[in-house]
Amino acid sequence: MYLAAGKHRARPMCCAQDNHFTGPIPGQIGSLTRLRVLNSSSNHLQGTIPPNLSACVNLKAVDLSVNTISGTIPTTLWMLSKLQVLNLAQNQLTGPIPTSIGNLSSLNTLNLGTNTLSGPIPRELGHLKTLQQLQLSINNLTGTVPPSLYNLSSLVSFALASNDLYGEVPSDIGFRLPKLLAFHNCFNQFTGTIPPSLHNLTKIKSIRMSHNYLVGSVPPGLGKLHDLTMYNIGFNQIVDTLDFVTSLTNSTVLQFLAIDGNLLNGTIPESIGDLSASLSKLYMGGNRISGKIPASIGRLTSLTLLNMSHNLISGEIPPEIGQLKQLRMLGLAGNRLSGQIPASLGNLSLITQIEMYGNELVGRIPDSFSEFQLLLSLDLSSNYLEEAIPNGLFTLTSLTSLLNLSRNSLTGPLPQDIGMLGNLVVLDLSNNLLSGNITDSVGQCKSLQVLSMSNNSLSGLIPNSLGNLKGLQSLDLSSNRLIGSIPETLGKLQALQLLNLSFNDLDGIVPKEGVFQNRTAVYLEGNPNLCFGLSSCDGSSPSHRRKMAVHTVIIITLAVFLSCLLIAGVGDVYSYGVMLLELVTGKSPTDESFVGGLSLVKWVRAAFPDRAAEVIDTELDVTNVIRSGVCTISPEKQLMCLVSMIRIALCCVLESPETRSSMRDVLHQLESIKEALVKKPQI
After folding, report:
1. What beta strand segments (E) does 82-191 contain?
2. DSSP summary character for residue 358
3. 3-state DSSP percent of the chain in helix, strand and coil, to 5
4. Which of 149, 221, 234, 402 is least crowded, fewest Cβ atoms below 10 Å from its Cβ?
5. 182-184 and 626-628 as β-strands: parallel, antiparallel, unpaired?
6. What is the pLDDT, as a whole number, of residue 630?
7. Residue 466's closest CA among 438, 485, 503, 435?
8. pLDDT score recorded for residue 477
9. Is 272 helix (H, G, I), strand (E, B) or coil?
10. Comparing C-alpha atoms, which of 682, 459, 32 is closest to residue 40?
11. CA 487/CA 462 separation, integer angstroms
């Protein structure tokens, strides 16, 4: 690092920000006793902060942010009595915040955010009476917030987000911190209510209190916050109607509104369309909102994200949503929406993600969906969509993440254009009424990791071209009308971990390479003419695996690759939990038996654990002892596996997102269950 004191004797400074300096901060820096400003931010500096920096007693500003500086914060920094700005953010600093920082009586900016600092927040920081900016977010700080910090009446910005802090925010915070423009305490463990006095800060611009354990209702006073740009109270336990939305129409510069993951109920007011013309992101999912989506939503023309998923919203999708030309993400999944998908949605030329699964939508997929040139992910599964899939949908080369049209009533053959989905990772067309051959062009979808076309009426041969899908991990073509032999090319797929070809009319010799060497990963039941080696080609079918054990193993195996995809960023933990319940119970979230407020989750939760066996799919007959080589799977073992999966699923769909299992924990538990299910006996 190069140091320079500058030309002017009266105001010596070292400004070396936004360069590519590497290495440690030189120890000689302590000799620059006349230095007033040290700015070496946004470089690649390493090592520790030299303790002799405290010898630079004339320093007024130190900015070492956005580097890779490690070690602890020197306790000697208190000697910099003239210091007004201390910015050490976005480094790799560890250890506690020195209590001696509380002696920097001239400090107006303290930014220690985005490090790995630990321990409690020192109460001595409450001595910094001139402090205006306090940024401690994204660390590992623990304990409660010292009451003295709420007495720093000069604070303009107060940020404690993403730590492990707990306790209640004082109800009179708005009176004790009258100059506050930004208050961020999200991603912690705060309890209590939203302080009513916070809404008395008429100049406040940003309130972020999401991902805590706040209860109660939204306090009055939002209508006075004319300068508010962000209001995020998502993922708490707030119980209220949506009447407060009308108050927010006075916040004419509001850009971000998140109220998702709470216990909000009632209908969406027509006034939602009167929210700020600058509003770009609106999160409302994961509540108990009912009624229809107002047509006025179409007036929020700056929206880039609209998420209303996992509510109780009914009625039709308003065509006015097609007026949201800036929209990138549209989430309407897990509701009770009915009617047809409006063709006007094809006007969303910038859309990248659409989630409408788990509703009661009917009719055909609009041809206008073929106009999406930037679409990355489309999920229309678990609806009542019918007729043929528009050919243009398979020409969307932008699709990279997911195309899920499963659990509908779609008909017709697969078009040759399916091969144009060369960048797609997951394709699920299962549980429809598709017919005709599996086209050879599917072998051109070379990015596929998961391909499912099960439970259709597909016929003809399994194409050899599937052997071109080198990254394929899961292939499910079960319960169709496929004939002929199993292509040897499937045995060449080194990444393949699950292959389900059961319940077709396949014949010939089963390949012996690759995935076929692991009988717990290959399912071929319901193909009586298949031969397991030349000695078994006598027309008899293998009997060492019973149908129900296979289904149990299929379910647990599917649960494990799908969870891997979720860890990779495809989907969310709540949706995964619902999917797991579908696998075990055989029921869709839109099953006609769920009426009067009853849902799939509530139905299973009411039966668990004492009556768990009653919700397991009746087709999963777990009454037989299964023998596979030296492996014996008892009925008790099969039932234990399925009940354990129900327990995991219920942990994924807990009302409070903070209490839900992480996907890595889910994967670990599922792998343990699978291992126990097919474990060979000890000799």
Report:
1. 85-87, 92-95, 109-111, 116-120, 133-135, 140-144, 157-159, 164-168, 182-184, 189-191
2. S
3. 30, 25, 50
4. 221
5. unpaired
6. 46
7. 438
8. 96
9. helix
10. 32
11. 7
Query: Beta strands 626-628 and 631-633: pairing type?
Result: antiparallel
Report the C-alpha gap between 174 and 136 in whole angstroms. 20
Write the DSSP string, 375-442: --EEE--SSEEEEEPPGGGGG-TT--SEEE--SSEEEEPPPGGGGG-TT-SEEE--SSEEEEE--GGG
Within 8 A by CB and 6+ apart from 368, the residues are 343, 344, 345, 346, 347
Q: What percent of the chain has pLDDT over 90?
A: 70
Q: pLDDT band at residue 442, thresholds of 50, 70 and 90?
A: very high
| 63, 17 contact by CB (below 8 A) | yes
Among 14-18, 363-367, 671-675, which range has the highest average pLDDT?
363-367
Q: Can you read off the two tokens belonging to residue 660? A: 């839900």
Nearest-angstrom CA–CA distance, 52 and 29: 7
3-state secondary structure (DSSP) of residue 61: strand
Average pLDDT of the segment spanning 255-281: 97
How far apart CA 24 and CA 317 sit, in angstroms, is 58
Specify the pTM: 0.78
By three-state DSSP, how is residue 134 classified? strand
CA–CA dist 112, 89 (Å, integer): 5
Give bridge partners of residue 37 from the DSSP assignment: 13, 61
3-state secondary structure 294-321: CHHHHHCCCCCEEECCCCEEEEECCHHH
Domains identified in the chain and CATH numbers: 548-619+631-678 (1.10.510.10)
Contact call for residues 39 and 66 (beta carbons, < 8 A): no
> For residue 212, what are its two tokens?
């805590």
The residue with tokens 């070809």 is 501
What are the strands of the beta sheet with 164-168, ordered from one edge? 70-71, 92-95, 116-120, 140-144, 164-168, 189-191
Q: Are 124 and 104 in contact (CB under 8 A)?
A: no
Per residue in 4-39, pLDDT (tens digit) is 333 333 346 555 555 567 888 888 888 898 999 999
- Cα dist from 516 to 8, 449, 495, 558, whole Å: 77, 18, 12, 17
Which residue is listed with tokens 């961020």? 184
* Cα→Cα distances 14→34, 39, 41, 60, Å: 11, 6, 11, 12
Average pLDDT of the residues in 463-479: 95
The answer to whether the CB of 327 falls within 8 A of the CB of 351 is: yes
Residue-wise pLDDT for 283-299, tens only, equals 999 999 999 999 999 99
- What average pLDDT does the chain have? 88
